[in-house]
Structure formats: C-alpha cells, structure tokens
What does this fold into?
Amino acid sequence: MSASSFYKYCPVYQDKSFENEYSVLNLLADQVTFSTRKNFNDLFDSKVNLIKPSRKELKELSRKLKTSKRIEFKDTFYGDDWESKIQLFEQKVEEIFDNYLYYCVTDRNNSNLMWSHYANSHKGFCIEWDAAKIQAEKVKYQSKIPKFKLIDIIETHAGIGDNTKVGITIWQALRTKLDEWEYESEYRFQMSNSMEQFVVKKEPNYTLVKYQPEWIKSIIWGCRTTEKTKKHIKENLHFDVKFKQATEGLSSIAITELT
It folds into this structure.
C-alpha cells in the first residue's frame, strides 16, 4: 500500500528571533532544501563501493567496439597506465554521485526518535506533504553499502551499455542506507532537470527550491513547540493549511487535528 502523505521533521532552536531559523524561513518562503550526500549526517548514506575492472575486462570490452571507438577507448581507459586512468574515471563518477540532489521525507509522523533527532527534541514542527505531489521513492536498508561494477558505467560511456538499466541501478544504490537507520522509514525525492526553473539558490552541497503551497496538507506541532513559534508561523504563513498537534502518551506519540 502506497503512502498518502510524506512527512518532513523540521527543527526550531529558539523563539526569541526567527531570523536564523532556517526551517521557519523556508516554510514561510515556500521553499525546501535539496541536499547532496555530502550534506547528510550519516557517513555511509548513499556511499557506493565501486568495483574496479580488471585489465582483462577492459580488453574484452575494447574488442566489442568499432575501430573508431576503440582508439578513443584506449586513450581513456587502456594502455600501460590503465590503472591511473581507471582511478581518475572513478573520481569523476564519485563527483557525479556527489551532485545528485534529494529531498528526504518519511511516511511516519509519530516517530519519537525522529521528533527528537530532527525536530530538536519536539520543539520544532513536521510538514505533511501530499504524496501525490511528492514523487518520492523508498530507501532500501541493508547490512553493507551497495556494490557497483565500474565496468557497467564504462560500457555506457563507450556507447554499448544499457543507460536505463545502469541509471536505475545507480539510483537504487544512492538511496540505500545501513540497517541501523531503518526506523526512519525514509523516502527520497530526486531533483530533476525540469525543476531547475524553481531553483532559488544553489550551493555546493544543497539547493533551495520553490514548491506549490497546496502540496502541504498540514503542519504538525511538536510536543514542545512553543506558543511563540506557533503564533509566528500562523501569522506569517500566507496560505491556509490544517494544523495538528503531537502529544505525549504513556509510551508513544499521538497526532490529533486541531479545530
């Protein structure tokens, strides 16, 4: 069963001045932050074990190419210095992976751990997104980081590989995390080229992107969100939205809609 809503936990650190509270500023400006893997808090998040090809594999691949392509291939990947060439290509692939941009969400709004870790111990808030508008895909959790054969990318570079298949495999690898993070039940929305028109600001490790206010279904207050924070957001939010409240039960978090 697919999710009808996705959620983004947002921290608020103090309510004396909201000038530097980026979660509040983004909400009021209709923008979200898409991050690269370099901006993630987990060192192993989206990390891929790239398996280098052997000299034999490169030679076999070279034989499959037309003469015109074979010369270019040898200049790029083969020869006596083939190992340094492969290392250079691997670095370029890592740089490409570093440029992928994601907006990370979850299908859970009542996770005490996430309220604690990502919403500053319940002092922040949670955005409920319409899942029909946010085309996010589920993160895979496993015991080790994924492996990927570099020869598969080299084949596509040489013009004989399956670009679609390789692209799907790369995207799967880049939305893989270790088992210890499974409690997050994370989904990822990848920024596409068509979204460039909505870019507000571009930095090396993140990009601010405009969204449509109607994509938000509700704002959920944390158990410790201050009245001052609630008042500031309500008075400055320029669109109508439902508000909900997270409350502390005996051993779980409950979410109720406010009237």
Observations:
- The longest strand covers residues 242-248.
